[in-house]
């Protein structure tokens, strides 16, 4: 029987910058983000430096068998442990990597950070992200109609929320 992969989530470090930038700029990721331009290394480095100084932000790398395969960020946006999250997997990652990353990031959010609620947003055409949130136990909390303009068209944004109590019930 094949051994289960060793998986962990850890803080992002400066040495991860180029790997994460390559994922973020890949069309399989970029096409589902609010900002779609190709990000330069200078822009990416400045983003990382600023986020690293912000105690409300947690940039995380998900590893499988010691190989980085995904990125997630948690951002505390309000008092009482309310956070937004974002995530993407390496474009070459095997199916199911996102789910494992999601579970690890949520465990970090609710156990390590003691957050009360994690909120996600997905562009309405991003069916994989919508399935992903549904599979992880998020509730769909509403649709922001025509909330995102991509330069040519408006897109609805689907809002998701998961409470610590709901997560604990299922884990
Ligand atoms: C979203 C993401 C992290 C999900 O990772 P993943 O779980 O490894 O992705 P999978 O390809 O296994 O798909 C997840 C679910 O979507 C379903 N799915 C995959 N492709 C799909 C498609 N084209 N249409 C509809 N559903 C799809 C899968 O079947 C799976 O659901 P299931 O387990 O119930 O079968 C990953 O696809 C990603 O990084 N996407 C690009 C960046 C992104 O969209 N980030 C989120 C922004 S809100």
What does this protein structure show overall?
By secondary structure, the protein is α+β, with helices and mostly antiparallel strands. It has one domain (7-170): Aminopeptidase (3-Layer(aba) Sandwich). It has helices spanning 17-25, 27-30, 41-52, 97-112, 127-135, 164-170; strands at 7-11, 57-64, 67-78, 82-89, 117-123, 139-149, 154-163. It has a seven-stranded mixed β-sheet, with helices on both faces. Coenzyme A binds next to helix 2, strand 4, helix 4 and helix 5.
What order do the helices and strands come in, and which of them pair?
Elements: E1 7-11, H1 17-25, H2 27-30, H3 41-52, E2 57-64, E3 67-78, E4 82-89, H4 97-112, E5 117-123, H5 127-135, E6 139-149, E7 154-163, H6 164-170
Parallel strand pairs: 4-5
Antiparallel strand pairs: 1-2, 2-3, 3-4, 5-7, 6-7
The protein binds coenzyme A.
Main β sheet profile: 7 strands, mixed
Structural class: alpha+beta
| Helix-strand pattern | EHHHEEEHEHEEH
CATH topology: Aminopeptidase
Strand content: 35-45%
Mean pLDDT figure: 96
Distance between the termini: 25 Å
Number of strands: 7
What topology, given as strand order, has the largest sheet? 1-2-3-4-5-7-6
> Mind telling me the C-alpha Rg?
16 Å
Provide the CATH top-level class: Alpha Beta
Structural domain tally: 1
Could you name the ranges where pLDDT drops below 50 across 5 or more consecutive residues?
Answer: none
- How large is the count of helical segments? 6
**What hetero molecules are bound to the protein chains?**
coenzyme A
Into which percent range does the helicity of residues fall? 25-40%
CATH homologous superfamily (4th level) name: Gcn5-related N-acetyltransferase (GNAT)
Q: Specify the CATH architecture.
A: 3-Layer(aba) Sandwich
């Amino acid at each position: 029987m094949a051994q289960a992969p060793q998986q962990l989530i850890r803080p992002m470090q400066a040495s991860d910058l180029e790997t994460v930038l390559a994922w973020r700029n890949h069309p399989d990721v970029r096409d589902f983000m609010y900002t779609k331009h190709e990000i330069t290394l200078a822009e990416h480095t400045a983003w990382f430096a600023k986020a690293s100084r912000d105690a409300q932000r947690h940039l995380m790398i998900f590893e499988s068998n010691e190989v980085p395969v995904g990125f997630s960020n948690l951002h505390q946006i309000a008092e009482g442990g309310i956070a937004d999250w974002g995530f993407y997997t390496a474009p070459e990652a095997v199916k199911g990597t996102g789910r494992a990353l999601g579970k690890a990031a949520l465990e970090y959010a609710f156990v390590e950070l003691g957050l009360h609620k994690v909120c996600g947003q997905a562009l309405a055409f991003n069916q994989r992200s919508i399935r992903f949130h549904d599979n992880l136990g998020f509730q769909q909390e509403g649709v922001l109609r025509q909330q995102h303009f991509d330069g040519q068209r408006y897109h609805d944004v689907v809002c998701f929320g998961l409470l610590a109590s709901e997560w604990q019930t299922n884990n």
